[in-house]
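Incident log, support desk, overnight shift.

02:14 A customer reports that sequence design results differ from what the structure should imply. Their input is reproduced verbatim below. On-call engineer (initials T.W.) acknowledged and began investigating.
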């Protein structure tokens, strides 16, 4: 029973026409382009090289290993005329970046692209077809060789039917609620509101007759 139901939800695969196999698009030598090098035969490899190089001190105020004294502003003495205790009257102090040498060492990085022979195809740009193995027939990638696929239209139809069947009791209860509410309102109107209207009309009629 379960197998019959499962079979009802299936249909013949349109890709392989139910055979389970399709034609392979490899070349005459049963080869396909190498997926690693994309048929180039070579792959690119980024080479990075880091070297330590010596350059002139990159401190913006360095002058041959000396910078202007920040304590006295390069004057060599203070406002009261005393000799600057920081630079001892020279107006310049040793650069803390280069240590007075005027040159510093900085890492220098260089990159370039190197082409190497593809390790997958060994530079041939093609590899033996892994799908048909030299037969030109490959397992259908859609149905995976079964020849059938699920019929989505039938599945959606059954799901919609189940949804409406599950929703019907709720809809029926809602309609019954509306009907019952209308009946109660009608009874209340006839029992109470309609009597008041009859009394009002009767009193108005009697008043008119007296006149």
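02:41 Re-run completed on a clean worker. Output:
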């Amino acid at each position: 029973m379960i197998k019959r139901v499962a079979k009802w939800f299936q249909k013949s695969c349109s890709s392989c026409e139910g055979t389970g196999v399709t034609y392979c698009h490899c070349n005459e030598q049963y080869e396909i382009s190498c997926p690693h090098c994309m048929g180039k035969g070579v792959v690119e490899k980024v080479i990075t090289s880091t070297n330590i190089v010596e350059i002139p001190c990159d401190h913006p105020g360095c002058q041959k290993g000396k910078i202007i004294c920040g304590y006295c502003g390069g004057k060599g003495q203070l406002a009261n005329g005393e000799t600057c205790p920081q630079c001892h009257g020279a107006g310049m102090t040793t650069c803390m970046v280069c240590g007075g040498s005027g040159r510093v060492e900085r890492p220098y990085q260089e990159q370039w692209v190197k082409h190497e022979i593809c390790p997958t195809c060994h530079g041939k740009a093609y590899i033996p077809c892994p799908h048909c193995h030299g037969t030109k027939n490959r397992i259908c990638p859609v149905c995976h060789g079964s020849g059938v696929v699920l019929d989505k239209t039938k599945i959606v139809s059954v799901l919609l039917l189940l949804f409406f069947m599950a929703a019907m009791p709720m809809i029926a209860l809602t309609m019954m609620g509306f009907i019952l509410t209308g009946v109660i309102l009608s009874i209340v109107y006839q029992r109470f509101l309609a009597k008041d209207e009859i009394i009002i009309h009767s009193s108005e009629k009697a008043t008119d007759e007296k006149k």
